[in-house]
Amino acid sequence: MKAIRILSRNIRDSFKSVFRNFSLSLASISCITITLVVVALSIVLSFNVNNFTDMVEKDVTIVTFLKVDIDEAGREAVLTELKKLDNIEKISFESKMAIADEMMEANETYKNIMSDWNEETSPLQDTYLVKVKDIEQIEATANQIKKINGVDIIKYGEGMVEKLVSTFDLIHKICYGIVAALILVTAFLITNTIKITIFSRKREIEIMRLVGASNLNIKIPFIFEGLFLGILGSIIPIAATIYGYAAIYDRMGGQVFSSIIKLVKPTPFVYEISVILVGIGMIVGMFGSWQAVRKYLKI
Amino acid sequence: MNLIVMQGVNKRYKNGVNAIQDLNLTIEKGDFVFVIGSTGCGKSTLIKMLYREEKPTKGKIVVGGLDVAKLRNSKVYKLRRKIGVVFQDFKLLPKSTVFENVAFALEVLGLPKDEIYHKVIKVLELVGLKHKAKNYPNQLSGGEQQRVAIARAIVNGPKLLICDEPTGNLDENTSMEIMTVLEAINKLGTTIIMVTHDRTIVKKMQKRTILLDSGRILKDYKKGKYVDESNKNTK
């Protein structure tokens, strides 16, 4: 009961203190707000890029064209060799006739040309569609497939996939870098705000010590103050994320440029981001004030 | 029964000044003791060690059963809850009322509101300031401000009240008013140690008086035996 009374007093005091040094608090809150807006943007970007990468990765297939004159036994031998490779997720077979049917269905002109082709006369090639487990290893896997006896040529969008993946990776890294730098600056600003609060409450702290308040009791209000600054600073970014992202999603119809690049659905995505934002705000706030307490509150 | 025991206490500051040297002193529960001496004789250091603002370099200090010298920083609050401290500059919170200033001492200890209210009103009555409970410190005279500080120091019912020049900023009449309040508190059983420059008060009150010089006890006058020898011993 006593501990609860002391805690509620501490919370009340720290809340009061946020408004007592309002101009300073506002500076810290603004900094947290800016940081968290950038964090939110980074997360939104990062998740969507991840989402897109996942989709691309799922779709990347090494199309393995077999030699035109390959027979049943040859196809089986290639399949056995393919199964021996490590980085293989799934293998499916598409016969030259199936491909011809597909093409004829899609285009009337093809139909006219291909309609009298048969197994013997078709110039098309049987193919194995190979999906890989790790897209970063795709080049190595492709090279291994190329060497298999019976394989004619392979296609997998050479170079493009790797470039895409490494570009996304770079975007991630830049986002993380900016967020880390902003978090550091914010923590530093909060440390300064709390430092000034500590100096402005010097007399109060002195009296608290004299009347027998424990060290923890003296320190806790400042930690709470940092926590409040963090929470207050996360309000605008959270609102912006919840309403802003939903608006963007609706406006763009859930995709960017074409149906290939799909956006992550707003629910529960925006709420997950909100939890992350308030969490970061609280941690940065508490960390900043803890630094100030550690450095400037000598008890 | 002894409330304070100091044995072989030395205090040497980092700058090399020996503030207290081989000091032995016992103070009984319920005593009223003056500590006098010229500036720099170690009076303030002596009482600062009692409420553990300073640590002795050597020796043993026991206050109310707590070994002050061995007390860790994080446990100092346990000692502070047993003692009240009053200063020359009152140390009041300017933006809080008289009531709030006194209540502050109990709030930080987590007492319930009802109990705080009753204790504060009772102690304000004792120092004669109940009618000014809603005033702010800047609306009070120096003597009244000091009485608020005293009220705050004793509201938690400490065994020991340490007063560091409480009348230093006050005129003679007001000083005597403060002394009357302190004597009343002492009669209720609180031990009082008061550091002062004001020999007139010491002479009038005739309490046990310890005269310090260069960090050592020069004289320990028993109750009713104080004679002002300031011209002979100190400046």
Number of helices of chain B: 8
Specify the helix fraction band of chain A.
over 70%
Terminus-to-terminus distance of chain B = 35 Å
% residues in beta strands of chain A: 5-15%
- CATH names the topology of the largest domain in chain B as Rossmann fold
Rg of chain A, alpha carbons: 31 Å
Write a concise keyword list for the protein shown above.
heterodimer, A: 299 residues, alpha+beta, Alpha-Beta Plaits, 2 domains, four-stranded antiparallel sheet, two-stranded antiparallel sheet, 9% strand, B: 235 residues, alpha/beta, Rossmann fold, six-stranded mixed sheet, 8 helices, 10 strands, 27% strand, globular
What would your notes on this structure say?
The complex is a heterodimer of chains A (299) and B (235). With 299 residues, chain A is of the alpha+beta class. Chain A folds into two domains: 190 residues, no CATH class; 96 residues, Alpha-Beta Plaits, CATH 3.30.70. Helices cover 72% and strands 9% of the residues of chain A. Chain A contains ten helices and six strands. In chain A, the strands form two sheets. A four-stranded antiparallel beta sheet of chain A has the order 2-3-1-4. With 235 residues, chain B is α/β, with parallel strands linked by helices. Chain B has two domains: 148 residues, Rossmann fold (3-Layer(aba) Sandwich), CATH 3.40.50; 75 residues, no CATH class. In chain B, 33% of the residues lie in helices and 27% in strands. Chain B contains eight helices and ten strands. In chain B, the strands form two sheets. In chain B, strands 6-7-8-3-9-10 form a six-stranded mixed beta sheet, with helices on both faces. In chain B, α3 runs parallel beside α5, α4 crosses α5 and α5 packs parallel to α6. The radius of gyration of chain B is 18 Å and the shape is globular. The model of chain B has no long low-confidence stretch (mean pLDDT 90). The chains are: A alpha+beta (299), B alpha/beta (235).
